[in-house]
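REVIEWER CHECKLIST
Item 1: Sequence provided? yes
Item 2: Single chain? yes
Item 3: Sequence as submitted:
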Amino acid sequence: MSGEKQNTIDAFQDAVKSGNFDTEITLKKAKSIEEFTPKFWTLKDKQFGNLDNSPEDEAVCVYETPMEGDLGFAQSLAVYKRRVKTGSYGTSQPILLCLPNMAE
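Item 4: Structure as written out by the authors:
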C-alpha cells in the first residue's frame, strides 16, 4: 500500500475516533456535485432528473458518512437543485436523511 493511501486511511480512522469530521453538508452552492462532499464523506452514487416538474433538474446523491451506525457507517441522501441560468448546483438547505447501512 502506498504511503499516501495509508496516510488517507489513518487520517480517516483518527477523524472517526475523535469525532473530528463534518456531520452535515454545509456548502450551499457549487459548480459540481462533488464539491458538496464533506471531508471524510464518500459520494457513493448520484442520479439526475426532474423530481418536481420545475424547469430545473435535481441531483440526488447518496453518501457514506464517517458517522458510525449499527451496521457500519451511516448513509445520507441529499437532493440539490440545478440552476438553469448558471448551470451550477445549489440548495438553501440540502435534504439529508441518515440511512442505516443495510446488509444485503
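Item 5: Key structural point noted by reviewer: The chain has a mean pLDDT of 80.
Item 6: Recommendation: ____
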